[in-house]
Write a structure and sequence with these properties.
6 strands, mainly beta, 12% helix, 2 helices, 43% strand, 75 residues, SH3 type barrels, six-stranded antiparallel beta sheet
């Protein structure tokens, strides 16, 4: 099932299948690229950032960026 990264819950895993072209270059340096596997580590309250683990590294993304990333979630 495909979901926006912003809609995923802590503990969910998946593979990035689409990144909006307007943010692709800015998130590539964080290891966030199409085809990469990720896990949502935490979600901060009140619209705060989403904490994810990609390639063994933890990083945070604001909700706006997370809405622009589509993930194929594991079942």
């Amino acid at each position: 099932m495909k979901k926006k990264l912003s809609d995923m819950k802590p503990g969910e895993k998946g593979r990035i299948v689409e990144i909006d072209s307007s943010i692709r270059a800015s998130v590539a340096g964080m290891g966030i690229r199409t085809g990469e596997e990720l896990k949502v580590a935490a979600e901060q309250p009140i619209g705060g950032p989403v904490v994810i683990v990609v390639r063994g590294r933890e990083t945070s993304l604001g909700k706006g960026l997370a809405r622009s990333i589509i993930v194929e979630c594991e079942k």
